[in-house]
Design brief:
Layout: H1 3-18, E1 42-46, E2 52-56, E3 62-63, H2 68-80, H3 101-105, H4 116-127, H5 132-147, E4 153-154, H6 156-164, H7 167-178, H8 186-197, E5 199-201, H9 203-209, H10 211-214, E6 218-219, E7 222-223, H11 227-240, H12 246-252, E8 257-259, E9 264-269, E10 273-278, H13 289-302
Antiparallel strand pairs: 1-2, 1-10, 3-5, 4-5, 6-7, 8-9, 9-10
The structure holds glutamine (GLN).
Glutamine binds next to loops.
């Protein structure tokens, strides 16, 4: 499929999604997110040759929320390598993204890095040897490098809004701390975590930031991770990136993806495309209703499922 055909397809997918009856509702437990219009949808597709296709509200910045854990995991693996896995599982949770139940059964070890407990533990890991300010700075610099865009920033209002409403994440953090799976104070860890989540990117910037996963760990300006590591991060996205909807999403779209509660999804077709879609209305799993629909339509029309093209 050439760029012009893909451009038309992306516009069609957006139009079909906008016409969909049920877009779901925007997250309201983080007050700053509740204001988003659930029906807006934007999409951007970055390709290995550097071309970019986009449609809808592709240039509206949104906070990464849990998508940030893909980048936090990449940094963490760069920091301590596979030793990281002593502190994280690699299995789908089958429970809600913010659930605490498995933490008790599994000794304070998050089932995977992509549920909230995992993302909080990643912030803790990336704090060593930094102060929170430095850890946040490192994270933003990494995103700017990946997206090749110095304008990426943290929305302090969103970070503050989440911190003020973080009872549940605080509970997860204290629980892990009680099991000895945090190395820093709960306040420092949560403060870092909410700033990761409040990194603001639009669809084009996010699609560009995902290119290293599309290209076996490489970027046009250098290698980010080994091919093996890129493959493994994608495997985790496929099995855990959409929380307890990961199985159904693999069934529908068949590509690795990671969602966030602001309605963003980063999806990767290895060797072919890095896709960012965003629509704030959520389904019951906390994934974007129209975002999931858009990725299903797109992969069906392009044959991009990793399980086969027909
Ligand atoms: N910052 C959000 C939270 O902690 C992230 C959750 C998500 O994106 N699913 O609840």
């Amino acid at each position: 499929m050439d760029c012009a055909e893909l451009e038309k397809l992306a516009a069609d997918v957006v139009a079909q999604c906008v016409a969909d009856a049920d877009a779901g509702v925007a997250a309201s437990y983080i007050p700053e997110l509740a204001r988003a219009d659930p029906r807006t949808i934007g999409i951007a597709i970055a390709m290995p040759d550097g071309s970019m296709v986009s449609a809808g509200a592709f240039d509206t910045p949104f906070s990464l929320q849990s998508i940030s854990s893909v980048f936090a995991l990449t940094l963490g693996l760069g920091r301590i390598g596979d030793q990281l896995w002593a502190r994280f599982g690699r299995e789908p949770s089958g429970t809600a993204y913010n659930s605490i139940v498995q933490l008790e059964r599994e000794g304070g070890i998050p089932r995977n890095p992509f549920i909230n407990a995992g993302a909080i533990a990643l912030a803790d890991l990336n704090l060593s040897p930094h102060q929170p300010k430095e850890a946040i700075g490192e994270f933003i610099r990494f995103l700017r490098f990946l997206a090749d865009d110095l304008s990426i920033f943290v929305d302090q209002n969103i970070a503050r809004s989440e911190l003020a409403a973080s009872g549940r994440n605080r509970a997860l953090a204290y629980f892990m701390d009680a099991f000895g799976n945090l190395r820093h104070g709960v306040d420092e860890v949560l403060g870092t975590y909410v700033h990761y989540c409040a990194a603001m990117l639009d669809c084009c910037q996010l699609a560009r930031a995902g290119r290293f996963l599309m290209c076996g760990g490489r970027m046009p300006n250098g290698r980010v991770v080994s091919e093996r590591r890129a493959r493994r991060i994608l495997a985790l996205m496929l099995t855990c990136g959409m929380y307890d909807e990961s199985g159904d999403f693999a069934f529908r779209a068949g590509i690795p993806a990671k969602s966030g509660i602001s309605g963003g999804i980063l999806a990767v077709v290895p060797g072919v495309a890095s896709i960012a879609v965003r629509s704030p209305g959520l389904n019951g799993y906390g994934n974007s209703t129209l975002g999931v629909r858009a990725l299903q339509l797109l992969t069906e029309q392009t044959g991009w499922s990793i399980f086969g093209s027909r």
